Amino acid sequence: MNKLYIGNVSEEASAEDLETIFEQWKIPHSGPFLVKTGYAFVDCPDEKVAMKAIDILSGKVELHGKLLEVEHSVPKRQRSCKLQIRNIPPHMQWEVLDGLLAQYGTVEICEQVNTDTDTAVVNVRYAAKDQARQAMEKLNGFLMENFALKVSYIPDETVTTDAPPLGGGRRGFAPRGPPRSGSPGLGARPKLQSDVPLRILVPTQFVGAIIGKEGATIRNITKQTHSKIDIHRKENAGAAEKPITVHSTPEGCSSACRTIMEIMQKEALDTKFTEEIPLKILAHNNFVGRLIGKEGRNLKKIEVDTETKITISPLQDLTLYNPERTITVKGSIEACSRAEEEVMKKIRESYENDVAAMNLQSNLIPGLNLNALGLFPGGAPGMGPSMANAPPPGAQAGYSSFGGQGQPESETVHLFIPALAVGAIIGKQGQHIKQLSRFAGASIKIAPPDSIDTKQRMVIIAGPPEAQFKAQGRIFGKLKEENFFGPKEEVKLEAHIKVPSFAAGRVIGKGGKTVNELQNLTSAEVVVPRDQTPDENDQVIVKITGHFYASQLAQRKIQEILSQVRRQQQSKPSPRGEGPPHGDRPPLARPSRK
């Protein structure tokens, strides 16, 4: 892939002009420029140089008033199933990227390309041409965390005829045979970063030395260890310690950690600070039990192997919105570095096991971004209380069930809880419901009671799918914690979703087929009450009753049906003078954005 196509070339441009630009940006080329009307071709010495030219010039450098477009030159016969995606956020996680790519078809290969750029680059092969074409159209220019993706074809050398796609992939499944590069179990897949960032606590007085004059020291650490490092200086104002988050490969995290410990030790000597400076690692409580091991064996082994003393903060220090525990490691810098590697290895193994288990559930729930749920550290950088109001990572990623828009749309769900549980959900002076709202990124309100002796109260939750998942999940959990359900009793709640009256038939299906399939698939009870009178917005209620995962799956499936109806409504142009379809009913309106 050494040959480049240069587009949007002015008619006034010459080969000498292009040569001057390449020389100006120190981009070597191995052959003359072949200039045509409006475009040109040139050969580069190798693929790395070609990538450099694309990143430096494409859409950034003008020639005779026109911005040049530079990409790999791909003959039409080789424009098949392979794409290159550039300008991926450097700390993007594989699960988020995989989820985005999978919206457009079966991904057979997804490999990271080593480049000199700050952003990541991957080569992707889809199972079929039309899937690659759709991904190209939808993803080129797509915003992810303020980075506009750049997508182009790359030569598919395997293409000789219009043979059917390799593997004859079944719809929605990877082809049979060996797993694709980067699928679980292939350990050799290159990492954009570790899915679990390293979080450490450092004494506040050493933060300035770690940052350095005008940020020089932290920039050097970042560069040398290929890490992204966040120092949360504003977190816990006035606290004696500040958290630092390191995003990198496991090796990069360990290298950055060691460098930070060395800087603190030097600063302590310079300032005559005599107290011991232990290494303090922050870890989500979900993983700490497995780090300790049965009867403390895992932790004891790490202590013996690394010649350190390790203690862990008590459970009493945890809150619902601050689920991290502090792992304090005492020993020499060399010993602490070895202990950090072993501790984080255990933490990452626990995370990967939990994600695998969670995927069994989340794969069944369309439209959910696992990493935006905040259930695991990788999904909520920081995991501290100050991160509760941060938008979920990857929030810009679109979901196919929401029309491919850049931001998931807000939904409203009415969840019914025991009337006696209202106080527990609201909390003292409304503190719990406020924290829950910030944590989930949702609007949460409790409707007034229908009557004095009402046994149920309605909780109105408004927000995108991930916010619904987090808010409803915490409410289910709170009811169990506060013993509103027996120790062996499963928490089952009723939820209501409003749908346009003309779409209710699609939820029910012919002869009740769709609603019966929904119930069989989700284990939730799904009912569209007959003889409902549509409200002022021409909407009717769908009732969903079940345990948390059953309810979530049913909600997502119903939203998927509504999205299909929405797309069909939008694709039907109304002849001038005619009213909307179905008599005087308006087409399905998009919910307002959050």
Short description:
By secondary structure, the chain is of the alpha+beta class.
Overview of the structural elements:
The chain is of the alpha+beta class and 594 residues long. The chain has helices at residues 15-24, 47-57, 94-102, 129-139, 207-211, 216-225, 250-270, 285-292, 297-306, 333-362, 422-426, 431-440, 465-481, 504-508, 513-522, 548-571; strands at 3-7, 34-35, 40-43, 62-63, 66-67, 69-72, 82-88, 107-113, 120-126, 143-144, 147-148, 150-153, 198-203, 228-231, 241-247, 279-284, 309-312, 324-330, 411-418, 443-446, 456-463, 493-500, 525-527, 539-546. The protein has a six-stranded antiparallel sheet with strand order 14-15-13-16-18-17. A hairpin with a 6-residue loop joins strand 8 (107-113) and strand 9 (120-126). Helix 6 (216-225) packs antiparallel against helix 7. The longest helix has 30 residues, at 333-362. The two termini are 43 Å apart. It is found in: Cytoplasm; Nucleus. Residues 564-573 have a biased composition (Polar residues). This is RRM domain-containing protein. InterPro entries: KH_dom (IPR004087), KH_dom_type_1 (IPR004088), KH_dom_type_1_sf (IPR036612), Nucleotide-bd_a/b_plait_sf (IPR012677), RBD_domain_sf (IPR035979), RRM_dom (IPR000504).
